[in-house]
Write a structure and sequence with these properties.
Helices cover 12% and strands 39% of the residues. It has 2 helices and 8 strands. An 8-stranded antiparallel barrel has the order 1-2-3-4-5-6-7-8. It is globular, with a radius of gyration of 22 Å.
Length: 153
């Protein structure tokens, strides 16, 4: 009888689910960290924030000044320029670092907050999706990796 109990206890410990390396592994944000340029010419810097999350800010605008030569202002805080404004927060990567979701982005030019997800399509292409409510009703914007900011903002 003791052998039976001992065998059952051993079997429970051997068959109990153990944490795997993938379950313990933190998502490495490095695949998406860096400078990314939109089709409109805006350059964003994606950087690590809040542990495993990725955030982003505008670091260069193709048209950074209005018709009067004044720096374009942040919709939410007119005392600040659009350049340097944090626009993306809360992106979290999946286990293999190719899909980033759960984030939000703000439109500092016209106002509005949108959900955001991004898929790394290669080392130099990040496909971003912006949406209100559900992703299906959003729009996709490809971002291309750049190695430097084109000039001062």
């Amino acid at each position: 009888m003791k052998k039976l109990y001992l065998s059952l206890i051993c079997a429970i410990f051997l068959l109990a689910p153990l944490p795997t390396a993938s379950a313990q592994r933190r998502t490495d944000p490095s695949p998406v960290i860096g400078l990314w340029q939109s089709r409109a010419g805006t350059v964003f810097e994606l950087y690590p924030c809040n542990g495993e999350e990725v955030c982003g800010r505008i670091v260069w605008l193709k048209r950074s000044r209005d018709a009067n030569g004044v720096l374009r202002k942040n919709f939410y805080d007119p005392s600040k320029s659009m350049c340097g404004s944090e626009v993306a927060t809360g992106l979290r990567g999946d286990a293999n670092g190719s899909l980033w979701k759960g984030g939000s982005v703000i439109d500092v030019e016209k106002g509005g907050r949108y959900g955001m997800r991004a898929r790394l399509k290669g080392p130099n292409l990040l496909e971003t999706r912006f949406f209100k409510g559900i992703s299906f009703l959003g729009r996709t914007e490809p971002l291309t990796r750049v190695t430097a900011i084109p000039g001062p903002c």
